[in-house]
Amino acid sequence: MGLEPAEKRTPQTRTRKPAVKLLASPAVRVGISISIATGLYGVSFGALAVTSGLNFWQTMALSLLLFSGGSQFAFIGVVAGGGSGIAAMSAATLLGMRNGIYGMQLNALLRPTGWRKYVGAQLTIDESTATSTGQADPAEQRRGFWAAGVGVYVLWNLFTAVGAIAGSSLGDPKQWGLDGAAVAAFLALLWPRLKGREPIAIAVVCAVATVIAVPFVPPGVPILVAAVVAALVGWFSHGRRDEGLEPDVEPYGGHHAGRHQDNGSVPPGVARREGTDPGAGA
Amino acid sequence: MSLWIWLLTACVLAYAWKLVGYFVPARFLEDPRTSRVAGTMTIGLLASLTVVNAVVSGQALAADARLGALAAAAIALVLRAPFLVVVIAGAGTAALLRLMGWS
Predict the structure, then answer these.
(1) Distance separating alpha carbons of residues A81 and B57, to the nearest angstrom
(2) Which residue ranges make up each domain of chain A?
(3) Which residues pair with B61 in a beta bridge?
(4) pLDDT tens sequence across A212-270
(5) A125 touches A102 (CB < 8 A)
(6) Among candidates A181, A190, A51, which has minimal Cα distance to B94?
(7) What does the longest C-alpha to C-alpha distance in chain B come to?
């Protein structure tokens, strides 16, 4: 869906070698372009991580083992602000909860077995979920997940290393505006989730709660205060069940007009996207 | 050394979240609150992290070049710039403002 050019080309390539066939899969092509776009900004993570006080191997451990952009940025964001290790760990862990929801959706969708479950779990992130759930055909859903998951993993780690090496030779990070880069990175992660009035209201309330908490609690803890406020809002209010779970990528481009009227009626694991402009946003 | 411990704990817990999704019975997903909370918390945490990195300095609030970075990033996002361009816009603006004397 939404990738007409690739679909038109499929009949011609069907006669060629398997490798070419795989590249003709719309999901694989989207997965590759998402991998390149996401992998590249691993540079900013690597550079910011070393300038916020992590060493090269701590930076690599986050990309290799934790492997979830938002949580990784959260960890170094708390450390950079003078927060404790436990506060950094807590922020990263709370932000990782959504991957559990993605895991449930993907498990229902792809029905992985054996080792695929364990490897697939590590590759369960915004990008692989979005690429997979954007496809309608089960084989394409599977290909999309693995293409984006493996692709992002390899490139994200490669570019994290590049960023970490470059970052450690920069000297004073403030002179290069790297603290400004962190601000921009968090806003860019938040931005795609602010579709409609409710998520914006949640963001504002949590931002205010953070500012109020700052003078009273140790560094890093205001972020956890905001997490509690957000969890309470989610628990006691009735809105879209997938609010904020819009992965921060739109592999199939398109717009989401009218989506905010479907208050929780979207069945889990079912393709929600209706991309219209092929290739855009990838 | 203690940073290593919390860092590795974060890695283990991140994988645990991911794995939980593949092993809990599907009916958990049918409780709309589970995914609601995961979603609102994602928004809340990212909003909070944005604010902390923009205006917080230790245990106080500060208005410095990072505010310029926030504004530049917002403009870049309105113009639908890709992630890396947004980040570079933020860094460039903060660096430029410092060069002009605004710490």
Answers:
(1) 7
(2) 4-181, 194-246
(3) B56
(4) 999 998 888 899 899 999 999 999 987 776 777 766 556 665 443 333 333 333 334 43
(5) yes
(6) A181
(7) 58
Query: ipTM score here?
Result: 0.91
Q: Please, are residues A228 and B42 in contact by the beta-carbon 8 Å criterion?
A: no
Of A58, A82, A243, the CB nearest to B39: A243
How far apart, in whole angstroms, are the C-alpha atoms of residue A106 and residue A112? 9
**In angstroms, what separates the C-alpha of A146 from chain B's closest C-alpha?**
15
What three-state secondary structure class fits A227?
A: helix
Both tokens of B32, joined, read: 């709309």
Mutate to test the interface with B, among A51, A66, A133, A187 (most CBs of B within 10 A): A187
Q: How many angstroms separate the CA of residue A20 from the nearest CA in chain B?
A: 29
DSSP calls for A85-108: HHHHHHHHHHHTHHHHHHHHHHHH
Distance, in Å, from the CA atom of A212 to the CA atom of A117, rounded to the nearest integer, reads 42
Q: Which two tokens stand for residue A83?
A: 């927060």
Distance CA A69, CA A255 (A): 24
Whole-model pTM over 0.80: no
CB atoms within 10 A of CB A230: 28
Q: How far is CA A133 from the centre of its chain?
A: 14
Per-residue tokens: A42: 């691993």
User: What pLDDT, in 10s, does the model give residues B6-48?
Assistant: 999 999 999 999 999 899 887 776 678 888 888 898 899 899 9
Could you give the dihedral angle defined by the CA atoms of residues B88, B94, B97 and B103, in that order, rounded to the nearest 10 degrees? -160
Residue A270's CB is within 10 A of a number of other CB atoms, namely 11
State how far the Cα of B92 lies from the Cα of B53, in Å rounded to an integer.
16
- How far does Cα A163 stand from its chain's mean position? 19
